[in-house]
Design a protein that fits this description.
GO terms for molecular function: ATP binding; proline-tRNA ligase activity. Its main location: cytoplasm. Helix 1 packs across helix 10 (about 320-330) and helix 6 packs across helix 7. The chain has 14 helices and 23 strands. The chain is of the alpha+beta class. A hairpin with a 5-residue loop joins strand 5 and strand 6 (about 105). Helix content is about 35%, strand content about 25%. It folds into two domains: about 5-340, Bira Bifunctional Protein, Domain 2 (BirA Bifunctional Protein, domain 2, 2-Layer Sandwich); about 350-440, Rossmann fold (3-Layer(aba) Sandwich). The radius of gyration is 24 Å and the shape is globular. Bound molecules: 5'-O-(N-(L-cysteinyl)-sulfamoyl)adenosine (5CA). 5'-O-(N-(L-cysteinyl)-sulfamoyl)adenosine binds near residues 320, 322 and 323. The site of 5'-O-(N-(L-cysteinyl)-sulfamoyl)adenosine has 19 residues, from strand 8, strand 13, strand 16 and helix 10.
């Protein structure tokens, strides 16, 4: 993409309404624009990152054997009356009446709708286990939407639902989700720690939240520092193997890690003092096992191996897709702007032409652009007639992990400069080697 042909409305001023750094940077980098309280338009740069986050979520869900689908945003109130949540959910639910006086709602979550789909089509244990998921917009009329996409009213969520014939298989589904989430967040350059939590309006006994440590997080968290040393890495996991998944879950749930809702001072005090940490965290996901809470009142049963009709065991599993953009920025920025992890960056690499209009520099930039594109990479070429300082400031603000700087002086010696956004370190390389280096970084 050439910057002169793109829509990147960066702001010079720091927007006064934004209280935390991720919100400020998302506005300044032209990623989002508020449409009304807690509701945002995703401008091209923000939309690109959102799609990248979504893609990783899809890939990891499908790697774990979960099936993608799409349910609507508007739901019938009648379904929620069946589960008893229509009245219980309270003012966070946006209730709507259509022209035929039928009650609808903008879905804050989809347990009822998925249970209805399941009961209409599945009746035997032979079709299980089954996990269906979608990535869809949700609406919760939060009393205090704030921090930009972090606590929005309209937000994008991945929500998945497992259906299992008995408790043991449902716990395997829970474990499988935990394992797949660990890999999902790591691919986004995040450390998200599973913490024992409270189930709130979704219900159920077993639940973990995934928290990214950040001073601006809304939750208070207590943990054993040992958990921050754990890495998922590129282990090969057989997601159907119950023992293997249970082992990984044990590894991550043995060190103490709880949110303030479930924190237990007596247990925490057994952690050696030098490893006890109190911090704040951003909740980027939550998994629940709630058994037959929805299947029983809604009559979602299957015939089990013994020929009996039993309500299915269910759980639901959420990832805050749009919130993740805020969380990633909170975890990865400096005074000059965002520092995108390579896994989610909107463009792989920036090209800065120090002397737009200089025939040599222009040609070298075009060649770099073509060579990077030919490798399957997407560069952002700053081809504006701007001074170098302004171009560097824009690149730093929007946070591309790598920048190639091209100027007449370097070209005389046959070199361009490859700079890491994270470390600020630069290397002078021939254009060919610079392209090969960037391609190698992205595994292309
Ligand atoms: N049905 C379950 C799991 S599918 C559910 O709704 N879980 S949840 O309430 O925990 O939401 C899942 C994730 O969505 C949260 O972990 C959080 O990351 C994100 N989320 C929740 N509320 C908001 C909000 N107001 N703005 C942005 N993201 C949110």
């Amino acid at each position: 993409m050439r910057l002169t042909r793109y829509f990147l409305p960066v702001l010079k001023e720091t927007p006064s309404e934004a209280q935390i750094v991720s919100h400020r940077l998302m506005l300044r980098a032209g990623m989002i624009k508020q449409a009304s309280a807690g509701i945002y338009s995703w401008l091209p740069l923000g939309y690109k990152v959102l799609r990248n986050v979504e893609r990783i979520v899809h890939e990891e869900q499908q790697r774990a054997g979960h099936i993608p689908m799409l349910m609507p945003t508007l739901q019938s109130a009648d379904l929620w009356r069946e589960s008893g949540r229509y009245d219980a959910y309270g003012p966070e639910m946006l209730r709507i009446r259509d022209r035929h006086e039928r009650d609808l709602l903008y879905g804050p979550t989809n347990e009822e709708m998925i249970t209805d789909i399941f009961r209409s089509h599945v009746s035997s244990y032979r079709d299980l286990p089954m996990t269906l998921y979608h990535i869809q917009w949700k609406f919760r009329d939060e009393i205090r939407p704030r921090f930009g996409v972090m606590r929005g009213r309209e937000f994008l969520m991945k929500d998945g639902y497992n259906f299992d014939v008995d408790y043991e298989s449902a716990i395997h589904a829970y474990n499988r989700h935990m394992v797949s989430y660990l890999r999902t967040y790591e691919r986004m350059g995040l450390q998200a720690i599973p913490m024992r939590a409270d189930s709130g309006p979704i219900g159920g006994d077993d639940t973990h939240e995934f928290l990214v440590l950040a001073d601006t997080g809304e939750s208070e968290v207590f943990y054993d520092a040992a958990i921050t040393d754990l890495k998922f890495g590129d282990r090969k996991v057989d997601y159907d193997n119950r023992d293997e998944c249970a082992e990984i879950v044990k590894e991550w749930t043995t060190p103490y890690a709880r949110t303030d809702e479930t924190h237990d001072e007596a247990i925490f005090n057994q952690v050696p003092e030098e490893r006890r940490r109190t911090s704040r965290g951003i909740e980027v996901g939550q998994i629940f096992y709630f058994g037959t809470k929805y299947s029983e009142p809604m009559g979602a049963t299957v015939v089990n191996r013994e020929g009996q009709h039993v309500p299915v065991h269910m759980g639901s599993h959420g990832i805050g897709v749009s919130r993740l953009l805020g969380a990633i920025i909170e975890a990865s920025h400096d005074d000059n702007g965002i520092i995108w992890p390579e896994g989610v960056t909107p463009f792989h690499c920036g090209i800065v032409n120090l002397k737009q209009g200089d025939a040599e520099a222009d040609r070298a930039c075009e060649q770099l652009y073509d060579a990077l594109t030919a490798k399957g990479l997407e560069p952002l070429y700053d081809d504006r007639e701007e001074r170098a300082g302004a171009k560097f400031a824009t690149m730093d603000l929007i946070g591309l992990p790598w920048r190639i700087t091209v100027g007449p002086r370097g070209l005389k010696n046959g070199v361009v400069e490859l700079t890491s956004r994270k470390t600020g370190e630069s290397e002078e390389l021939s254009p060919e080697v610079a392209v090969a280096r960037v391609a190698e970084i992205y595994g292309k």
